[in-house]
Design a protein that fits this description.
It is a single chain. It contains 25 helices and five strands. β1, α22 and β2 form a beta-alpha-beta unit. 58% of the residues lie in helices and 6% in strands. Strands 2-1-3-5-4 form a five-stranded mixed beta sheet. 45% of the residues are buried. Pfam families: PMT_2 (PF13231). Its main location: membrane.
Length: 527
């Protein structure tokens, strides 16, 4: 256990300034301001409508996600409102705090000022973390929670205090309430000690108590999944059965890990991985190196998307920065000092990060982005076949077209006679359409939209009989099989940058299926 003497307040302040954490916090603050400034340049992202809709129906789970992000956006909207900057405030803060977490891990691994600052810079310029800070989603908190787990593992080992496994359990449990993929990292954390001298940790009751705590934190969502017959597993099975996701080969998967973490960061995190696995200095923490290998193998075998492994890299940045700092500070006889490389490396990384930032931060207009993309020495990754048709990459194209959909829903609603409105619902084909109509049009007096997609299906047909429906995004011939009267309203205005555009709207009456509740099981769309 760490028995270092307690420091007085002035001494702690001087140490905080000397060890680089003041610089790290300054970088984190600059990152926060950067995200807040640019986070309203385009529009609301499709998935953000889903999170906001779920946040209006607080429960212990949803078809495509656990409850943490919907709960946080519920609170955030209540406090800050509905602007883009308000919706994306939590991601901006989480992205900035990740820099501090990365530096804190470097400090616990034995790093000094340069290692702390360099590791924070590596996290700052990683495209995936920049993207996480610009969009609301489960990805935005995932690196923070993974690195929280890694941090408590390091403390448990370094300070010989197994009680930190309880905090690991709390963090892992919260991680499961955010995104289930943290279970893969947890598996790696368990397998790692089994393959190293740290296996004796399993003889201590605290690690088992940590597991119990993680289970208890996750239990409400687990019970929700059981109650609804495992919706998330059904969703994943259907997505794989449709073959929507691109399957990456071994080289492609590794190359995209390099891209999402920034190509210039790759030598550092690879050095950190090897140091965790093989160096004497970091040998006590080699379980973290094995955790990376286990997670990498699991996501590759399961055909995970390229960003699924992204939350793990900050601990490798930290380990690599510690190794690099030690190498640059060596004073072997006859060897020139390499201190001059320290600022050079930092400046090159920052310059490279600035060059790559427009890939994931809407700094440029769409027209200027397309011109910029042509200058890149690589093609931007595509995760689903359907994304390849858009002019912009999916994370940008899915921020366009939804206001136009909501505007056309309002046009259709204005054609409904007042006598029919109490029993006339608005149906969207997917959560993006339904969520956009809910978000933009509810303030104008339109009823809540409904859909068969994801958790909207669980919320049901909202009591509508089906005698009068406004339907978005379906084909006329299919609607005529279900309704005796189908009137075309119009198509949402074209947006050249949108992945989803030109959505047709119909007013449907005289149902052929009886009551809408009877048809509802066939409307389920979990894919």
């Amino acid at each position: 256990m760490d028995r270092s003497p307690a420091l007085s307040a002035p001494d702690r302040d001087r140490q905080w300034l000397a060890n680089g954490m003041a610089i790290v916090w300054a970088i984190a603050l600059a990152d926060l301001v950067f995200h807040i400034y640019f986070n309203n340049r385009y529009g609301y992202f499709r998935d953000e409508f889903d999170y906001m809709s779920c946040g209006e129906h607080l429960q212990w789970g949803y078809v495509d996600q656990p409850p943490l992000i919907p709960f946080l956006i519920h609170v955030c909207r209540a406090v800050l409102g509905d602007s883009l900057r308000a919706i994306r405030f939590v991601p901006a803060v989480a992205s900035s705090l990740l820099l501090v977490q990365t530096a804190a891990i470097a400090r616990e691994l034995g790093g000094r000022r340069y290692a702390l600052v360099l590791s924070a810079i590596c996290a700052l310029v990683s495209p995936q973390y920049l993207s996480n800070g610009s969009l609301l989603g489960t990805n935005c908190l995932e690196p923070n929670l993974w690195m929280g787990c890694a941090y408590f593992v390091i403390l448990a080992i370094k300070r010989s205090d197994p009680r930190y496994w309880l905090w690991f359990g709390v963090t892992a449990g919260l991680g499961m309430e955010n995104k289930y993929s943290i279970a893969v990292f947890g598996l790696g954390i368990v397998v790692g000690p089994l393959l190293t001298a740290q296996r004796r940790v399993f003889l201590n009751p605290w690690i088992w108590l940590g597991g119990v705590v993680a289970f208890l934190v996750f239990l409400p969502n687990l019970l929700w999944n059981i109650h609804y017959d495992w919706p998330f597993l059904q969703l994943m099975h259907n997505i794989r059965a449709e073959g929507r996701d691109l399957v990456l080969g071994p080289f492609q998967f590794f190359f995209q890990q390099v891209l999402v973490s920034n190509p210039l960061n790759a030598p550092l995190w690879l050095a950190g991985l090897f140091a965790l696995l093989f160096s004497a200095r970091l040998r006590p923490y080699c379980a973290l190196g094995w955790a990376y290998l286990v997670s990498y193998a699991a996501f590759f075998v399961l055909h995970g998307k390229n960003y699924y492994l992204a939350p793990i890299y900050p601990m490798l940045f930290a380990a690599g920065a510690v190794v690099l700092e030690s190498g640059l500070d060596r004073r072997d006889a006859g060897q020139p000092r390499l201190q001059w490389l320290k600022p050079v490396i930092a400046v090159v990384l920052l310059a490279n990060g600035a060059y790559l930032a427009p890939i994931v931060i809407p700094i440029l207009s769409p027209e200027h982005f397309l011109a910029y993309a042509k200058t890149l020495p690589f093609k931007l990754p595509v995760n689903e076949y359907s994304h390849a048709r858009a002019a912009l990459p999916q994370w940008y194209s899915d921020q366009f077209g939804y206001k136009e959909i909501a505007d056309e829903a309002l046009v259709a609603w204005d054609r409904i006679p007042a006598a029919e409105r109490s029993d006339c619902g608005i149906f969207g084909q997917d959560y993006g359409q339904a969520g956009a109509i809910d978000f933009f049009d509810r303030k104008l007096g339109l009823p809540p939209a409904f859909s068969g997609d994801r958790t909207y299906w669980i919320w049901g047909p909202r009591g509508y009989s089906g005698n009068c429906l406004i339907v978005a995004g379906d084909r006329r011939e299919r609607l005529e099989q279900l309704f005796g009267e189908v009137d075309y309203v119009g198509t949402s205005a074209d947006n050249p940058w949108a992945l989803e555009s030109n959505i047709g709207f119909y007013i449907c009456r005289k149902p052929k299926f009886g009551k809408l509740a009877e048809l509802w099981p066939q409307i389920k769309r979990w894919r």
